[in-house]
């Protein structure tokens, strides 16, 4: 037996789920910067999409879609952007994270926090839908005749 001390990453700490695990439990604040970036990106994309599709919004309003219906459609679309983006991020990040943990620490078990990942996807879907709400309401307020008269 060796008298060497265990490496620091195998010692228990408040952030590690169990003794010997090198994968710290992520806290809710760990993903906040990337989530904020995703929400801002989707909000910007939705705003640009609403401006570029003003004729489409006007046509939908002219054939009878209500302002609320148009707002809901564009908000759900923004939420879907967030859902698809978060799901793709999780599907790409989990295997790479597991690969890096295995490459760096050998036989350490990889603990994937599925509940936290699912919560992050849901939270991002809601936040991106809310980010799309402002441009959607702005697009729904344009009168159908003004929207159809624009070039585009």
Summarize the structure.
The protein has 152 residues and is an all-alpha fold.
Overview features:
single chain; 152 residues; mainly alpha; 5 helices
What value does the Rg take, in angstroms? Answer: 23 Å
Structural class: mainly alpha
Q: Could you say how many structural domains there are in total?
A: 1
- State the distance separating the first and last CA atoms: 76 Å
Mean of all residue-level pLDDT scores: 80
Q: Would you write up a description of this structure?
A:
The chain is mainly α and 152 residues long. The chain has one domain. It contains five helices and no strands. Helix 1 runs antiparallel to helix 3, helix 1 packs parallel to helix 4 and helix 3 packs antiparallel against helix 4. The protein is rod-shaped, with a radius of gyration of 23 Å. The termini are far apart. 21% of the residues are buried. The mean pLDDT is 80.
SSE arrangement:
Blueprint: H1 32-52, H2 54-62, H3 67-105, H4 114-141, H5 144-149
